[in-house]
């Protein structure tokens, strides 16, 4: 019989690799947009596990799907396929431009697959010299060595030795710079259709359209990293659908499983053909448990009333933040779309986003930051109005305590 351990925050420091610095409290239960810690204290969750818990905690459709699949089959190697994976793939192709799907376990792995596909396509069709990948400063694409190098934040990629080559970082929303730099060597452009970790920065319509046109001009692929923006987060199932631009490859994860680890790369039949048998794989990719939960999540999120509800909740958040800011002017602007929102701090409050996060936690509210100057909100897509109101009341009290 396994030994039972009494665990508290101190145990983290004893046994865990110190690449995280978690809060002192340990959540043990969640329901909807509310979370309770070991001491029974309640929190309103405006963080959603960093844009993961799209249906909140323990949503019935997710719980039911997991229980049902847990009594059938848990794992199969990719020597075989399985019913939940096939149903989920069909669902994703029905709700996107894609014709083919590759399943992984995380956003980083989905992006790794996207980048490998782009490189393989370019090498096979045009030759090995067509290998350059362009991405954008302050972008974030995962923590594998390839994806963290493509991400435009050197603080995350420095210090691990020689980096993968042929990766160029340019300024986001600077179409002139991109046009000047691109050439026939460019294999692909990878971009977030709304930068998340980089500060909740939206692209201009001209920039997105221009990127698409430049890719066509130079025979380069357009990869949209929708790990954070996807699965209803912006009010469209995928953000590209609200931008009027269709990528060649799309990565998705985070909200895809609503909290169960899963990622996917979506693409066309033409491009998928370049990943022949043996060129890529994943032991757990397409896991029946993960796919069964994700199928339930996607079926729920794609309901028109849920997507329309995201846009309504965005307005509730914006109105509440404006009311707080009228009393305690700390925000310069509210950025983002749907329920991927960032409250950018004004000049007097530069560098104090984490102060607000900590103060909010003390008041029983979970929020995020996106850099030192942006407070980030990525709550459940179906969060109740009452929970929004209560969360905003707690945020106001937190800001009032540190306002000076």
From TrEMBL:
Further remark: May also have succinyldiaminopimelate aminotransferase activity, thus carrying out the corresponding step in lysine biosynthesis.
Name of a matching Pfam family: Aminotran_3
Cofactor(s) essential for the protein: pyridoxal 5'-phosphate
Oligomer status and interactors: Homodimer.
Keyword Amino-acid biosynthesis assigned: yes
The organism's taxonomic lineage, starting at the top: Bacteria, Pseudomonadati, Pseudomonadota, Gammaproteobacteria, Vibrionales
Residues the record lists as N6-(pyridoxal phosphate)lysine modifications: 254
Residues given in the record as N(2)-acetyl-L-ornithine binding sites: 143, 282
Matching HAMAP family: ArgD_aminotrans_3
CDD domains: OAT_like (cd00610)
Residues holding pyridoxal 5'-phosphate: 107-108, 140, 225-228, 283
Recorded name of the encoding gene: argD
Protein name as annotated: Acetylornithine aminotransferase
Subcellular location: Cytoplasm
GO molecular function terms attached to this record: identical protein binding; N2-acetyl-L-ornithine:2-oxoglutarate 5-aminotransferase activity; pyridoxal phosphate binding
Cofactor remark: Binds 1 pyridoxal phosphate per subunit.
């Amino acid at each position: 019989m396994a030994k039972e351990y009494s665990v508290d925050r101190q145990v983290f420091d004893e046994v865990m690799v110190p690449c995280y610095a978690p809060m002192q409290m340990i959540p043990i239960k969640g329901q909807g947009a509310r979370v309770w810690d070991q001491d029974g204290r309640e929190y309103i969750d405006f963080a959603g596990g960093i844009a993961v818990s799209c249906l909140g905690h323990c949503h019935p459709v997710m719980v039911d799907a997991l229980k049902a699949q847990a009594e059938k089959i848990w794992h199969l190697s990719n020597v075989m396929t399985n019913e939940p994976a096939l149903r989920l793939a069909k669902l994703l192709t029905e709700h996107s431009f894609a014709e083919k799907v590759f399943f992984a376990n995380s956003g980083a792995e989905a992006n790794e697959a996207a980048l490998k596909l782009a490189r393989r396509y370019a090498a096979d069709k045009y030759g090995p010299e067509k290998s350059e990948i362009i991405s954008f400063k302050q972008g974030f694409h995962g923590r594998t060595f390839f994806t963290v190098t493509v991400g435009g934040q050197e603080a995350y990629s420095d210090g691990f030795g020689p980096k993968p080559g042929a990766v160029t970082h340019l300024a986001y929303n600077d179409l002139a710079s991109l046009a000047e730099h691109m050439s026939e060597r460019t294999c692909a452009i990878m971009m977030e259709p709304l930068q998340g970790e980089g500060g909740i920065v939206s692209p201009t319509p001209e920039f997105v359209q221009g990127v698409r046109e430049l890719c066509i001009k130079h025979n380069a692929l357009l990869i949209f990293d929708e790990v954070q923006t996807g699965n209803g987060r912006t009010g469209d199932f995928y953000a590209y659908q609200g931008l009027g631009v269709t990528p060649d490859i799309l990565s998705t994860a985070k909200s895809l499983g609503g909290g169960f680890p899963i990622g996917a790369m979506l693409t066309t039949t033409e491009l998928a053909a370049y990943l022949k048998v043996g060129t890529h794989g994943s032991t757990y990719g397409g896991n029946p448990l993960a796919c069964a939960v994700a199928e339930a999540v996607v079926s729920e999120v794609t309901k028109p009333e849920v997507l329309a509800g995201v846009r309504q909740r965005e307005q509730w958040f914006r109105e509440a933040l404006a009311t707080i800011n009228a009393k305690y002017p700390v925000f310069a602007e509210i950025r983002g779309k749907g329920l991927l929102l960032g409250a950018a701090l004004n000049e007097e409050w530069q560098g104090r986003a984490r102060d607000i996060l900590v103060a909010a936690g003390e008041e029983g509210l979970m929020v995020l930051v996106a850099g030192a100057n942006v407070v980030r909100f990525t709550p459940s897509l179906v969060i109740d109005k009452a929970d929004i109101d209560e969360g905003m009341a707690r945020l106001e009290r937190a800001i009032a305590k540190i306002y000076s």
